[in-house]
Predict the structure.
Amino acid sequence: MGPVDRHLSGPEKRVITQALQHCRGIGPVRLAQLQACGVQTWHDAVHHPDQVPAVVRAAVIAESRRSLQALEDDNIQYFVDHFSPLDRWRILSRYIERCAFFDIETTGLEYDDTITTIACWHDGRLHTFVEHENLDDFLDLLDEIQLLVSFNGSTFDVPRVLDGFHIPNLPCPHLDLRWPCYYKGLPGGLKHVTASLGIKRPVDLQDADGDLAVRLWSQWSLQKNVDARQQLIRYCAADVLLLRPLAEFIAGLPMDSLPGLWDTLPHSAPLVGPTGLLEERRQFLAARFGSASPRLLRTRRRR
């Protein structure tokens, strides 16, 4: 029995076994037909095969057996790989206490921009990693994680981690909350989604975004502004902490992490002055690459 099982009972424990849309031939219409026939879980399909419509019987029973085996084996990766996007929220309902939440900041949004900061909530505490200091230690933490959770990480954070650390795959399953949110009627970015649930960042981070993160890193890396470094870590960590109550909501569980949500954040540092973002970005790239700046090279190729 996994840790989360102690907190779930009755229907809640069966939520993950009600995922049937990853079975071949099962869409919303067939799912409704299965449920009308009394087949609502993998156990129903395996123990009462005659109740499964003949046209999908073999596929549903075979997949139900595989899923039950994965459940017995505690194989979270199987569910991440096979569940329909409409059912991935069910993974959270079963394994919420196994989740580690993470977010990264980079020097920009282009393919050749690099990771500057990583924050990860794991095993009851906040871990932070900064480029040129301890960024590689994140790989050691990944080896301990059973289920890594992000928001929009499938298209941004995870590819950057794989590329930045030169690894072919993550050593743990990864679940992107953006799509479970979307299918629960919560489209948009993390800030918009959490605000719609009444969860707001601290006042000093209300207007913080990726552009600010780039500027803060520039001020730290070029000017050694310790306040900028502190505020960058605080911003990244705040997004990570937002993922915890969001995952609880998506899983249909009480948002128990809301009280004291911001207690583990680094203290606020004075916001940096209104220096020009583009100029700071130009200085950062010039200091790092000189005449080989990616932007300069692309400009020359276009001439």
Remarks:
- The radius of gyration is 22 Å.
- The beta strands are 99-106, 115-122, 125-130, 147-150, 174-176.
- Residues 98-285 form a domain with the Nucleotidyltransferase; domain 5 fold (CATH 3.30.420.10).
